[in-house]
Each structure stands twice: as C-alpha cells, then as structure tokens.
Task: structure prediction
Amino acid sequence: MIDIESVVKGFKTAESRWARFGPYYAMFPVDFAFEVVKKYSKEGDYILDPFAGRCSSIYAGGVLGRHSLGIEINPVGWLYGNVKLNPADKEEVVDRLFEVYGKRNYYKRAIQRMPEFYRICYCDEVLKFLLSARKNLDWKNSNVDATLMSIVLVYLHAKIGEGLSNQMRMTKSMGMNYSVEWWKENGLVNPPELNPAEVILNKIEWRYKKGMPKVTESAVVFGDSTIELEKIVDRSIHNDIKFSLLFTSPPYYSITDYHADQWLRLWMLGGSETPKTITEKHKGRFIDKERYYNLLDNVFGLSSKMMEEKSTIYVRTDKRKFTFDTTVEILNKHYPNHKMRIVNKPLKEDTRTQTKLYGDKTMKPGEVDIIMRN
Ligand SMILES: C[S@@+](CC[C@H](N)C(=O)[O-])C[C@H]1O[C@@H](n2cnc3c(N)ncnc32)[C@H](O)[C@@H]1O
Result:
C-alpha cells in the first residue's frame, strides 16, 4: 500500500522525487491530484485526462494502482508525463549525456550567430551543449533520449544556481526583449559559467537517488484530443474497457497560451528560435468563443462514450464567466444523468493555486471544481 503522505510531502521515495517532475504553467498541485484519484476511484480502475499538461493526474493514478490514460498536445507536457511514468535506466541516461556533451564543440561557430538573448542567458559551454542536445537527442522515439531531454528541459531556465541559465522564471519562459532588458537593468549581462555535463549529472543523480517510481500500466498520448479520442473510443469499445474517472483541467478561455509560455523549451525540442504564437489549431491562446465551445464539446462528448455509467467527472477550471458557463453547459449535455456539484476554490495567498504564480498580470478570479457523479 502506497503511503500518499510520503509522495506528496518531501522527497523520500522514488514516487515523490518523480511526482513534481516538470515545471509547467497552470499545473495541478501534486497533493490535489493524489487526493482526487484516491477519493473518486479504486485500484484497477481506468482514469482519463484529455488535457493532461504535465500529467499529474495520470501519474497519481499510476502510482495508486489505477490504469491512467492522458492526452497532451504540447510536447513539453507530454515529455514530462511520458518520462515520469517510465524513466529510462539511469546509467544509459548518463552515458548519453556524455555522448551529447562530447559533441558540443561542433557547435562552436553556431553559437556565434545566436540572438543576444541566448548569449546572455547561457555561457558558451552551456549553449554549445544545448545545441548538441537539440540536434542529437531523438526524444520522440528513444526513451533514453526522452529522459535526458526532459531533465535538460526541467533545468533549462531557473533561478541562478538552480539550473543552466542566467536568472529566469522556471515555470514560464519570459519574452526575449523583456529578458534582455531585465538582465541589463539588473547588472546580469554575464551568464553564470557552468559545466553543463556536471550540472545535469547532479540533477540525474538526485532524481534517481531513491530509484524509479512503481507505476501501474499507464500512458500519455502526444496529440490533439479531438483526433486521438476518436481512435481511443474505438479501441476501448473493442477491448471492452470503461473509464470510471474523468479527471482533467481544460485550457481556460482567453487566458493562457501554453505553447508561447514554453517557447524556450519548445525551441530545445526543435521549435522556433524566437517566441511565436503558434497558429495551428488548439496550439495558441483560446480566443475564439465558437472554437473554444467546439473543443470542449468534442472532447467531453467523445470521452463520455467511454465512461462507466457510475463514473465521476472531476473538472477544475477557471471561474470566469465564459469558461465556467461553457463547461457547465457542455458537461450537463454529455452527462445528463450525473448530479453536478460546484466547489469554489477561493484564491489563497498560496503559490500552489494553478495560475497564481509570480504576480502574473492575467490575474484571475480563481478556480472552481465541477464534480459530477451518478
Ligand atoms: C490547464 S492545462 C492542464 C494542466 C494539468 N492539469 C497539469 O497539472 O499540468 C490544459 C492543457 O490542455 C492542453 N490542450 C489544449 N488543447 C488540447 C487538445 N486539443 N488536445 C490535447 N491537449 C490540449 C494544453 O496544452 C494544456 O497543457
């Protein structure tokens, strides 16, 4: 029997060391994810999260003996989730680190042409290493490379001394011009001189110190839920699988741009060198009311085809009117026999609240939990 207290507090077990893996914007507090899974499902049940983010719901499910399935469109969130459910063997990750580090000098000339932002953010040794990792790690297809890449992503930007960068926020990548100006104003134009292999090796040692988490077979799919769920519905019907808990937090209307907020980590994964709002469907800010409605309608509608009759639907969302009203309407439409309970989450002076981070200007009246049971 897993001791939940030891997972959600401290870092004494493998499960707790991997639980918080991956800084992400608007993430579930780990203890909240574990509490919901424990309260609304039992061992052996199936749990679904079609907007999985860094996959705390899926991880909590797996650690607590449930089969969990997540879907996430942002490669940063997907990678964190995928790796924490199944990290590669430590020695192989360390060998790969030194292989990639060994190739850094091929990038001596390439760093000279990088925008000023990168030259102030990282010392030359780090920047050469990052270019080598970006070019050589096959994170989509190799579990070892995915594990190393995700550890690099975690520490790609952080407070000075805690990662590979000059002073930066950890959860969200700041804009290029904003950062350059801020470093200049604060006398931080020289990035810290670091040996990236040493920094990452220490991080690997710490993460694996208590071993690997024991997780019941669970998975996270990289893709768009509106497309992936169609295939999952077919497979669940074919295999006669029903989910007993739908536990998720959809994107909030007009608030967050999950791709732009992670632009520097997305650059590491092969994306653009400068921050850009991605115009592809479901990858930018959700500012079109009809599209937002259709996204939720589609995802909650498809999910409902796989839920047990006696299931629980647990949705954490934004209190603002359009997001809240739309979510309630759509959930009632797809779960007409479930009873709905609304639990307001007062905004606490507490950084654990999903969006209340670092005095963000997009401040928020808080969040709300919509719980439906039959
Ligand atoms: C509020 S966040 C979820 C955060 C998550 N609960 C956590 O703890 O990290 C919403 C997530 O939905 C993802 N998303 C938005 N549209 C999607 C889609 N069509 N398919 C899959 N994921 C999507 C976003 O990339 C974002 O990570």
User: Anything to note?
Assistant: Residues 349-363 have pLDDT under 50 and may be disordered.
